[in-house]
Amino acid sequence: MDYELQRFSRHCAQSGRELAPGEWYFTALVSEGFALKRQDFAAEAWTGPPPECVAWWKAQIPDRQSARKRWAPNDVMLEFFDELADQPERQDMRYVLALLLVRRRVLRVEEEHKEQGGETVSLYCPRRDATYTVAAVTPTPERAEQIQQELARLLQ
Length: 156
Hints:
2 domains; 3-stranded antiparallel sheet; globular
């Protein structure tokens, strides 16, 4: 099921104050009937998830002065994705990279399969007219940090 979510408002839902670059904020997705409404809060206004909250997260507004990080071109990311297929010890990294490629709309989720051996995801790449099956290996928080750092080092 897909949901249409509003973009980041850059204003606190409680005070109406504009949020500044570099500032931490919280976002809550609140269920309103069959729709989800996004609410952004300044860190000092956050008292916890509001009623009917289905998800929330903490983030920081990018500082305009800092240089924007550029990711590698999509073809380079796809080549690295292919290389990881032959490295069973790095399947968690391949899964995280697959999610990044889905977010960038290079790959799209076709199906999710739950089997005794674990969960897999079928992904389609229109650019290559190819379908991939990826093990859904969710890394631990510590490993996720390592993966994030390694992907940033390799692909930025």
